[in-house]
């Protein structure tokens, strides 16, 4: 069946609008509307291009930020704790300037984590394609933009040609029916999906998140959902744009204005899945049944309800899955059947492109108001962007964090991943609002438990893994 | 642009081990610089240097011995280039001077990365590669020819060993095109798209 003639999904509408060439079953040449670079690979891609005697085809649609290895301590500069890190920063800066690319540099008010900056600036817009040499580029799906992560040669390809050659992914719809319970957030939704359908459940698919509970999420929460589509193995994640999306986008630095705005809105309003459109796969989840989630192991699929017990590998039939569970338990120093709630922690981290936007910080700060981080817990908050940091400070959130005993940092990826610089200690148990709990991800030997910012804040205060609902009588929903 | 590859004759170094992964081709710590240049120095660092830190060479390693220091063709074992997707592995081989790698099979991402960078991955039967490697050991410096136009390898005795490679990959290698250059051959299509798209979605263009 030629689906171009029939009802279309949101993804297919975006894909068809960008397809320049390609045969069915083969690679498609698709137009890339925005490329975003960062200092870990951006300098290399731009250098590679220059050495090949090529130019960035349309520098006005290419952007770059310094986020991955830059220090997040107050008063930071180009010096970083990552060995050799400074060269990545300075070479990326030089290359970006030489190529005429807008750089969100250290010390600028708009600097921040790439996937926080691109929506914030209106660089990511509904219906656009956006690529970046970073696997969490799908975050912008929260706006209805199609973003995905690429390698360094592919980045050069996109820079030089304004296109990429990609195999068309299959389509999946994940429908969250009903309403979320109080105290449950988008992070809990995505961890529930991955926990139930595995970290490879989405391989080969682009996932559209839909249903009542998704419609009710604000835009920032939709970005959290799409951010972790890649942890589900998906090519990308998408949420159809709606009135909330338009309100979010309007007036942003690179968003259209005037007549363009009206034309854009008319186009964006067509970006919904047609009622008769067919998906290659569909999953339905009752949102009302989701409780706050936390991971016990070393894959995002090791996610359970915070009031549940660590599963028993002996009950797992698949040998390889069982072995992975056993390895994870050993690394995390946990036993089957053990309750996670009440496990003592050494660290609490609120940050990353998953959960460090203003709404995330507000939820955490609300729980911290008038409370103290438990003794022996190192608690850190790293805002997702310098704009988020400024906005949080304008409403006094920084004081709530600092008074509670959190470190309040400059924006960057920070301890979302270990690049050789700062880390939590070996064996430290950390509750974290980030997206990957892989072995050594946050530092050699560090044990990471993924959770929502509310759960991180509640756990920091209690000194052990704690259900945020047990702590607060005035929860937000 | 990569250098076009039509027919190449050179010294072939025998490194006939199975499952040589890209970590072995270039260890992580050798990838610290912000560059794809100069990586040849870190090629096979764990094997090539008795002490990688001081760069004290390991005299037994094939690439430290005459005449293989001058090798431009590598005779490798099954599943060469498996493991991590790091493109640095090909950059390092290329920087050292390799233009073709002959092996019974390749890691698939590595195979693609070779083509992308103008290094020819030649697949021959295991027995054939083993025999070529043995002949090199017995009589170092025998020249091998990789003829991509005629899709065959010619050993120093004049024996021909035909091989096959994907049509797109062959075109890319013969013309010295990389994927970017391949895409740019369709520049007219891209321009046509952009012209229409600028009218339809003007807000995309900043
Ligand atoms: S915060 Fe973490 S996941 Fe997000 S872009 Fe940075 S390193 Fe990647």
Count of discrete domains of chain B: 2
Q: How much beta of chain B, percentage-wise?
A: 15-25%
Biggest chain-to-chain interface with counts: A-B, 44 and 28 residues
Bound molecules: iron/sulfur cluster
**Helical proportion of chain B, percent range:** 25-40%
Task: Please explain how this structure is put together.
The complex is a heterodimer of chains A (477) and B (206). Chain A is of the alpha/beta class and 477 residues long. Helices cover 31% and strands 17% of the residues of chain A. Chain A has helices at residues 10-18, 42-51, 85-99, 114-120, 152-161, 186-197, 212-215, 219-227, 243-249, 258-268, 319-332, 358-368, 386-394, 397-404, 453-462, 468-471; strands at 19-22, 27-31, 34-38, 62-65, 102-104, 129-132, 146-149, 163-167, 170-177, 205-210, 236-238, 281-286, 293-295, 303-305, 347-350, 378-381, 407-408, 429-432, 447-450. In chain A, helix 2 (42-51) crosses helix 3 and helix 12 (358-368) runs parallel beside helix 15 (453-462). Chain B contains 8 helices and 9 strands. In chain B, a hairpin with a 5-residue loop joins strand 8 (152-154) and strand 9 (160-162). In chain B, the strands form 2 sheets. Chain B has a 7-stranded mixed beta sheet with strand order 6-5-4-1-7-8-9. Chain B has a two-stranded antiparallel ribbon with strand order 2-3. Classes of the chains: A alpha/beta (477), B alpha/beta (206). Chains A and B meet through helix 2, helix 3, helix 5 and helix 10 of A and helix 7 and helix 8 of B. The complex binds iron/sulfur cluster (SF4). Residues 68, 113-115, 134, 136, 352-353, 413, 416-417, 435 of chain A line the site of iron/sulfur cluster (SF4).
């Amino acid at each position: 069946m030629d689906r171009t003639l029939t009802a279309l999904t949101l993804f297919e509408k975006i894909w068809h609008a960008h397809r320049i060439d390609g045969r069915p079953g083969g690679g498609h040449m698709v137009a890339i509307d925005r490329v975003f670079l960062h200092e870990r690979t951006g300098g290399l891609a731009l250098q590679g291009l220059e050495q090949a005697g090529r130019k960035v085809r349309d520098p006005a649609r290419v952007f770059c930020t310094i986020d991955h290895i830059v220090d997040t301590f107050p008063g930071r500069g180009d010096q970083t704790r990552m060995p050799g890190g400074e060269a990545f920063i300075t070479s990326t800066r030089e290359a970006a300037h030489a190529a005429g690319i807008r750089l969100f540099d250290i010390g600028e008010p708009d600097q921040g984590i790439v996937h926080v900056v691109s929506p914030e600036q209106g660089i990511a817009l509904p219906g656009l394609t956006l690529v970046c040499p970073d696997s969490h580029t799908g975050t912008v799906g929260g706006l209805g933009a199609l973003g995905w992560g690429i390698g360094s040669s592919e980045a050069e390809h996109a820079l030089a040609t304004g296109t990429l050659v990609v195999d068309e992914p299959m389509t999946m719809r994940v429908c969250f029916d009903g309403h979320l319970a109080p105290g449950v957030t988008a992070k809990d939704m995505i961890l529930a999906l991955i926990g139930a359908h595995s970290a490879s459940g989405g391989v080969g698919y682009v996932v559209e998140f839909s249903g009542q509970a998704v419609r009710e999420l604000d835009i920032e929460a939709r970005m959290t959902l799409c951010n972790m589509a890649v942890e589900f193995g998906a090519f990308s994640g998408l949420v159809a744009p709606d009135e909330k999306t338009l309100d979010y986008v309007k007036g942003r630095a690179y968003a259209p204005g005037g007549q363009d705005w009206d034309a854009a809105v008319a186009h964006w309003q067509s970006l919904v899945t047609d009622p008769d459109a067919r998906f290659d796969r569909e999953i339905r989840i009752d949102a009302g049944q989701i409780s706050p989630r936390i991971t016990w192991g070393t894959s995002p699929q090791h996610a359970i309800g915070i009031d549940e017990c660590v599963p028993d590998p002996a009950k797992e039939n698949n040998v390889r899955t069982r072995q992975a569970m056993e390895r994870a338990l050993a690394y995390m120093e946990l036993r089957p059947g053990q309750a996670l709630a009440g496990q003592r922690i050494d660290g609490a981290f609120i940050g990353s492109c998953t959960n460090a936007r203003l709404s995330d910080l507000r939820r955490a700060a609300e729980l911290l108001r008038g409370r103290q981080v438990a003794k022996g817990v190192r608690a850190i908050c790293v805002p997702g962007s310098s704009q988020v940091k400024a906005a949080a400070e304008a409403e006094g959130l920084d004081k709530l964090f600092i008074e509670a005993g959190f470190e309040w940092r400059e924006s960057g990826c920070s301890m979302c991943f270990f690049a050789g610089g700062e880390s939590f200690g070996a064996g430290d148990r950390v509750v974290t609002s980030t997206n990957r709990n892989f072995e050594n991800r946050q530092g050699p030997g560090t044990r990471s438990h993924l959770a929502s910012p509310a759960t991180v804040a509640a756990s920091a205060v209690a000194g052990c893994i704690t259900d945020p609902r047990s702590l607060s009588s005035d929860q937000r929903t | 642009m990569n250098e076009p590859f039509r027919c190449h004759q050179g010294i072939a170094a025998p490194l006939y081990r199975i499952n040589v992964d890209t970590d072995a081709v270039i260890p992580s710590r050798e990838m610290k610089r912000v560059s794809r240049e100069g990586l040849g120095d870190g090629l096979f660092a764990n094997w090539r240097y008795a002490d990688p830190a001081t760069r004290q060479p390991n005299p037994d390693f094939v690439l430290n011995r005459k005449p293989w220091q001058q090798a431009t063709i590598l005779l490798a074992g099954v599943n060469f280039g498996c493991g991590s997707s790091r493109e640095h592995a090909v950059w390092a081989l290329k920087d050292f001077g390799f233009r073709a790698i002959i092996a019974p099979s390749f890691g698939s991402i590595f195979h693609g990365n070779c083509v992308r960078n103008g290094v020819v991955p030649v697949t021959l039967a295991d027995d054939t590669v083993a025999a070529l490697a043995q002949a090199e050991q017995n009589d170092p410096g025998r020249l091998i020819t990789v003829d991509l136009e005629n899709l065959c390898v010619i050993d120093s005795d004049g024996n021909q060993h035909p091989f096959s490679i994907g049509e797109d990959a062959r075109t890319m290698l013969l013309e010295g095109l990389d994927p970017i250059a391949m895409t740019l051959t369709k520049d007219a299509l891209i321009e046509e798209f952009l012209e229409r798209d600028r009218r339809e979605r003007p807000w995309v263009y900043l």
